[in-house]
Amino acid sequence: MASLVDDIKKQAKEAAKKESGGYRDPKSAPRGHSKESLVGGTEALIIEQKLNKAFYATPNYPEELRMIKMQKMQAQQQGDRYGLHCSAIITSENEFCYREQLLSLFYRQAQGENIPIGLKRIFQEGSMLGEKWQRLFVSSGLGKKEDMDISRFLEKYDLSYTPDARIYIGDEPWVVEIKSMNHFQFQKATSHPSGRKQLRMYMFFERIKRGFVLVENKNDQQFKVFPEIYGETFTKEDIMPYIERLERIQVYKREFIEDKKMVDRHPKCTSATCKMAQECNMRDACFNVGMGRVKLNVRND
To answer: Which of 23, 131, 155, 271 has CA 20 to 30 A from 207's CA?
Structure first.
């Protein structure tokens, strides 16, 4: 066991040296390169070995089926989507729209009919990939069925978020975000930017210090993990722009309830037929076209 750990550390040091541009002393590396490269490299190798071992576990079909049933029942009970979603909050300034988010708290949104068929196929594939890994986590004993793809709701922000998994490596809980990439992207990848932002938000809300983005190659099922550690690879300051968005939405919500004042559209959204509007789930309510403004049957006190 000791030699295995030594080998892992040796590989991690080599990876960290390459990552830091060859700086032997992490303190002498420029901003953006630090000793965390070594820590992350070591942990990435250990996590990858644990996950590879899960493929040899005896399938626990009864528990896997109970997990799938829990997930499907949750999806069936949701009805019209209500609440903000983490993936929408972390988008770029070019895409993020306060008006869209505010409208989603009061009116019915498109239920996927505005999504191109190609994107629907991608979403379905992503769902099946998540299920594969979740079943492996359950059968290998790394996680429990109730910690796989179960939504949480933060009333403070009207925020719904769904970590792909929470597992245990040793005694430490880890949040897992599962993504995929094509072969070309995978070969070059040293992180998954959008997955990392989601993961950091989930870790913060779950109050779990450790997490990783698991990225699978669509072509050959090879995978990489990119660990994150709160207080080391990121702090609250890194996610504050998104927390501030959530807080500002609550201000706009109160203004709408009390004064019927609606926030302006995104500057790029110029008409109901522009590209940004066509891709927006709240287009009908925003421009009062199509189904118009159908009120949600929820309280907005």
So the answer is: 131
d(CA 155, CA 114): 28
Tell me how far apart the alpha carbons of residues 174 and 178 are, in angstroms, rounded to a whole number: 13
Q: Where in the chain is the domain with CATH 3.90.320?
A: 61-93+113-238
Evaluate the CA torsion angle 105, 79, 276, 161 in order and state its sign: positive
For tokens 């799938």, name the residue. Answer: 68
Count other C-beta atoms under 10 Å from residue 58's C-beta. 7
Through-space distance between the first and last CA atoms of the chain, rounded to whole angstroms = 58
**Nearby residues of 88 by Cβ (< 8 Å), 6 or more positions away:** 96, 100, 101
Residue 294: closest CA among 86, 79, 120, 95: 79
**Which residue's entry shows tokens 């709701």?**
153
Q: Which residue carries 């550690």 as its tokens?
A: 229
Q: Please give the pLDDT value at position 79.
A: 59
Q: List CB contacts of 108: < 8 A, sequence separation 6 or more.
A: 80, 285, 291, 294, 295, 296
Among the listed residues 247, 166, 200, the one whose alpha carbon sits nearest the alpha carbon of residue 87? 200
Task: Output the pLDDT for position 78.
Answer: 66
Strand partners, 214: 178, 225
- Per-residue pLDDT, 91: 96
Return the CATH number of 61-93+113-238, one of 3.90.320, 3.40.50, 3.90.1150, 3.30.1340. Answer: 3.90.320
pLDDT over 80 (residue 20): no
